[in-house]
Amino acid sequence: MGSEHQMLSNPTLWASLALATALSFGPSTTKAEEVFDQQLAQPNDTDFASKGPWNVTLGAGVGYGPRFEGANRDHFVPIPFGSIAYAGVGALGPDGAKLNIFQSSGFRAGLLGGYSGGRNQNEDPRLTGLGNISPTLRLGGFVSYAWQNFELRTQLRQAVIHVSEGMEGSVGVNYTINPTDSWVVKFGPQLIFADSDYMKKFFGISVPQARQSGLTSYSAGAGAKDAAIGLTSTYKISEHWLIFGIAKFSELIGDAAKSPIVETKTQSFGGMGLAYHF
């Protein structure tokens, strides 16, 4: 009890928790199209060993990718990096909060929650006249299975504030290799899908929007919206410091690819940064 009280009263841990909370709700992770980029980059509680029940990694970097899904113009964005995990119970990081409800023989299942952003029509000339999409809180769940170096994972998240922004989810596989004890490399494919509410909000164009934007009106239906393959590399340069890199290539598919909003179906994202592991 005394050691637990000591950990919980540790100012460094509370400062880290405050920072992670700020990052998880910060503007750099609010764009819907950057959700996968953030999730791909994040470490988990098994990547690097910790001496106690707390496993904390915090850092930041810079990335370069499309201004919106389907944009042919790119921009620089900050990348918050890291997580705070406690004894396998759950974790908090830039991609939101995760609570493990079930764990057994490689299986994990639990709850997810996070701040998912909308879209501002002033971000790019292509969006002018389409109006803004409000940020929202999304809640949902996940299931994953780890076997040797493979991890199969799927998740669903529903907008619970602006419910008209619908549900989005993903299914993917990660393969992890450790070229050295200090180096973790993960790569694999992911398929991202959404319901009709999400697709209409982000890829559809109503008749009033068509008049204001000059684009053709369009109704997007539910289904897979893009297929991606990503890679992340994390290397410990000392006992506590590490550097990370991230790359992703994706292709919009289905009704998303046919939207008049989309300028190019092929998208790429890359970035790097520095983090500290407690």
What does this structure look like?
This protein has a single domain (2-277), classed as Porin (Beta Barrel). Helix content is 17%, strand content 49%. The chain has 6 helices and 12 strands. The chain is globular, with a radius of gyration of 19 Å.
The residue-averaged pLDDT reads: 84
User: What is the level 1 CATH name?
Assistant: Mainly Beta
Give me the Rg, rounded: 19 Å
- Please indicate the percent range of residues in DSSP E strands (runs of 2 or more): over 45%
Outline type: globular
For the record, what is the CATH homologous superfamily label?
monomeric porin ompg
Element order: H for helix, E for strand: HHHEEEEEEEEEHHEEHE
Counted beta strands: 12
Q: Uncertain regions: pLDDT < 50 for 5+ in a row? A: 1-9, 11-30
Count of separate structural domains: 1
For this structure, the CATH topology is Porin
Quickly count the helices.
6
Order of strands across the widest beta sheet?
1-2-3-4-5-6-7-8-9-10-11-12
Structural class: alpha+beta
CATH architecture label name: Beta Barrel
Largest sheet: 12 strands, antiparallel, barrel
Helix content percent band: 10-25%
The termini sit apart by: 22 Å
